[in-house]
Amino acid sequence: MTNAAGAHMRAELTSQPETWARAAGMRAEQALLPASGARIAVVGCGTSWFMAQSYAALREAAGHGETDAFTASEFPYGRGYDAIVALTRSGTTTEVLELTERVKGRTPVVAVLGDDTSPLVDLADTVIALPFADEQSVVQTRFATTALALFRASLGEDLDAAIADAQAVLDGQASDDPALTDAEQYSFLGMGWTFGLAHEAGLKMRESSQSWTESYSSMEYRHGPIAIAAPGRITWQFGAAPEGLQAQVEATGACFVQHPIDPMAELVRVHRVALDRAVGKGLDPDQPRNLTRSVILDD
């Protein structure tokens, strides 16, 4: 293992404040997303599915219309939608391409992607390209959060605080805390739009560092999963926690982690911890075990 292990991931995750600011300013591209009042589905695979969950929760909660999120392989073709937003970094994921081909001429597809030369560009009805957020590392960091920054800005959110929080995380020494990097197990929790972030945090730590991670709705954690909490393990909350949860977790001897910052910036903290944990274990998160940049299935 060389000193360059995780070099791409490190460069990409540290660029997130810059890419978020750029996406927040893309007003013309944001206007290409389905209009307020439209009934839409947001689809993706893996990380993109989790960002779809966050966008769907935010859009519907803000009163912009019924919004569902699906992994592309589980899209319910019997339902009627005014539009589908397809989120994919590579634009080559088999399930997303197949879905787009299948609904062609019936339901307009807005593709949000990183590679603006990919096959999805020609298939989708509308394309929003974020090539400045594309990545070389197999493990996604900035593309996912930059797409979510675009979505949040399109809903009228001011991202200045989120960007400042992310920069503060990157400027600090958060990932140097042994309590964060050396845990035996991680459970990530969220509610509403942060539920998708909790899922993504679990995936990021798992694929980067081969760690034991789980993710749950914060309110559901006490309905069984809290049984896994124990000394040497972490329960990590995104956003506000339900009343009494911290005390219940700490009573198990587990470490309860929560920071009063924008939850998307808290995901950046997880990125740093995941990277440092991976490198500390002699792993290269740019080339994680059993994974490729895009899942392309044989015919």
TrEMBL record:
Keywords attached to this entry: Repeat
Domain SIS span(s) in chain numbering: 28-169
Transferase recorded as keyword: no
Transmembrane segment boundaries: none
Domain of life, source organism: Bacteria
Entry-linked Pfam families: SIS (PF01380)
PANTHER family for this protein: GLUCOSAMINE--FRUCTOSE-6-PHOSPHATE AMINOTRANSFERASE, ISOMERIZING (PTHR10937), GLUCOSAMINE-6-PHOSPHATE DEAMINASE (PTHR10937:SF4)
Descriptive protein name: SIS domain-containing protein
Organism in which the protein naturally occurs: Microbacterium arabinogalactanolyticum
